[in-house]
Amino acid sequence: MTQRLFFDDAERLEFAARLLALEPAGDGCRAVLDQTAFYATAGGQPHDTGTLGDARVLEVLEEAPDRIVHRLDHAPTGAVIGGTVAGRVDRARRRDHMEQHSGQHVLSAACAEACRAETLSFHLGADVASIDLDRPGLSPDKLATAEELANRIVRECRPVRPTFHTAEEVARLPLRKPPQVAGSIRVITVEGFDVSACGGTHVRSTGEIGQIRVVGAEKTKGMTRVEFVCGGRALGWARRQGATLDALRAALGTSEAELGAALARLLAERESGRKERKELAEALANYQAAELLAAAPVAAGGVRVVATVLDGREMKELSWLAEKIRKAGRAVALLGGRGEQAALVLARADGIDLDLRTLLTQILPLIEGKGGGRPEFVQAGGTRRDGVAAAVEAARTAVAGKLGNAE
User: Fold this and answer.
1) Per-block average pLDDT, block size 10, for the chain (407 residues)?
2) Is the domain defined by 95-248 classed in CATH 3.30.230.70?
3) Which three-class secondary structure state does DSSP give residue 25?
4) Which among 198, 115, 103 has a CA at the least distance from the CA of 151?
5) CATH class of segment(s) 3-89
6) 3-state secondary structure 310-379
7) 281-406 has which CATH code?
8) Which of 54, 142, 156, 254 has a CB 3.0–4.6 Å from the CB of 258, allowing a cystine?
């Protein structure tokens, strides 16, 4: 049986233990001790890391209620079954996890009080932690109220105490949610605010959490997922936000108070520019369509066939131009583009007996492309830019033959 030293004292980071088992595992090994200060992944909280002797602890797993396995990069030098090995938990990782997990208890209790929303699950990620609340679409104002309450509890430096209880004792406690374990049950109490069954590592006072900051919320599967950061993570988040604001202020040449208005003006100018560029592109397409149609040969039935390759043109531009040509009268557009990739757009006016899907299938191998569309309008992109001219010429020949037969 492995005794969990962190249950009584999460600040204990160094310890000595008797080695009960040591077995090879992949490139490293697995070790079992009679006691450990290393937390094993459970309850939404990741495992600790650190060292056993001169070996690095890569992962800590709970394989059974009384068996904790430490996955190591190699066997500790000089370690023997029944002998003693020294362990040291990584201080920064433990402190971070204590801040986030204790912060979660406080924030979950605050959400229950301020939002009438209960926590269904908790996940402690590498960058942010999150809780899933049983109410969908909680408003920003509600979450802000919960955040303010949580931080008031932090500032009050309330004691955080772990205790152990029987099932009968637990039944008389004001737990926020029923425990998921049997036997001796560990309870974390935030004085006067929250009582929760939990096996994680926690601070001794809410003041050690530092700050709780909600950084995101989204509706998911009928719940609200709230992302948050505490302690050192909250400080890092605030610094990054400040650096972003400083960069925006410098780029826009404005104060923080005027930043919103400056961004609104910039977005309005961008939208105005986008509309202007679209109008210019439309005008250019109209002009070029008329120019190409005037120079195009007339096939049987009075159909003008525009077959050309336009260097530097992408698919979107070719599509605009082809649409203009096909709507200008009895015309067929066979356009190729050599932009970042090969592009083909084939279009015909209504009433012309051509299924351009069949034609596209025939010429696609020339550009090693893929595409499709409707009988009157198809487009394709490919990797062989040097095959565009041949594809357009093949399409022109096929259309000329088809129109000639129709005549």
Assistant:
1) 93 97 93 97 95 97 92 95 97 98 98 96 96 94 97 98 93 87 89 96 98 96 96 96 90 86 86 83 79 82 88 85 87 90 92 90 92 93 92 91 64
2) no
3) strand
4) 103
5) mainly beta
6) EECCCHHHHHHHHHHHHCCCCEEEEEEEECCCEEEEEEECCCCCCCHHHHHHHHHHHCCEEEEEECCEEE
7) 3.10.310.40
8) 254
The Cα-based distances of 244 to 217, 262, 263 in angstroms read 21, 15, 14
Contact 225, 132 (CB under 8 A): yes
Phi, psi of 377 (to 5 degrees): -155, 120
- Domain residue extents for the chain: 3-89, 95-248, 281-406
Report residue 230 as tokens: 């505490």
CA distances from 140 to 117, 152, 215, 234, 389 (A): 14, 18, 11, 19, 57
Residue found by looking up tokens 């490139």 in the block: 27
**What CA–CA distances, in Å, run from 68 to 25, 29, 56, 76, 95?**
15, 14, 16, 17, 21
Give the contacts of 251 (CB within 8 A, at least 6 positions apart): none
Angle at 46 between CA 41 and CA 48, to 5 degrees: 85
How high is the pLDDT of residue 293? 84
Backbone angles phi, psi at 283, to 5 degrees: -65, -40
